[in-house]
């Protein structure tokens, strides 16, 4: 084992590039495999998931409709039908959308396997105590990603669709939305939220490397809050309620990141800095 560790330490820059190349190849295989699985369930993916937020009986609209009625807010979520249609304007449009949507679904499905490959790639640079957290890393990272995807799909996507399709510059304009535009909104919003929810994991590794400390995060909390509000304003409709709904989980993730950084800093120096040569 010691010989193996010495060989890992002696890996050249080209060796690391070779490892990275195989990581990307294996990740691509996982995504392709997930895409093939998604292809066989394409009817459910499109009719129930992708086009779910198009229907006025979508669970999010029903929830916000009840909230709006209870507090006497704007009842735009209580519409019988959303005022837009989806159209395809190119010959190969539906085929292209079907293939790329399956690949996107394949990526989401294969995230745990991709994270495992990433862990194997970075683990030689970690120390023996940290390598024991492999399963914890995979489970927590996958959970946060899927939680972010669900948040983007069930919260931000319906809020955005409801606002954008009800915004009219004139009664003359009719909303016939291109299929690529609609599906692009659903996919981009969901995956972007999944990646944003990985913030605690990113902060953990930055803390291990000494690039971030809890003192730093606390000191710049006010600036982080401003950035979070700006981000929420960008990815949500321009109304206060939507921005608050999106900002709250992001602020919670930031606070969790502070405690994670504090946990890393409290670990004994021997655990963080000293590799175990007996492995």
Automatic annotation (TrEMBL):
Species of origin: Myroides odoratus (Flavobacterium odoratum)
Source taxon at top rank: Bacteria
Subunit structure, interactors included: Forms a complex with TatA.
Keywords of the record: Cell membrane, Membrane, Protein transport, Translocation, Transmembrane, Transmembrane helix, Transport
A GO CC annotation given for this chain: TAT protein transport complex
Compartment list: Cell membrane; Membrane
Annotated InterPro entries: TatC
Functional summary from the UniProt entry: Part of the twin-arginine translocation (Tat) system that transports large folded proteins containing a characteristic twin-arginine motif in their signal peptide across membranes.
GO-annotated biological processes: intracellular protein transmembrane transport; protein transport by the Tat complex
UniProt key word Transport: yes
Name of the protein in question: Sec-independent protein translocase protein TatC
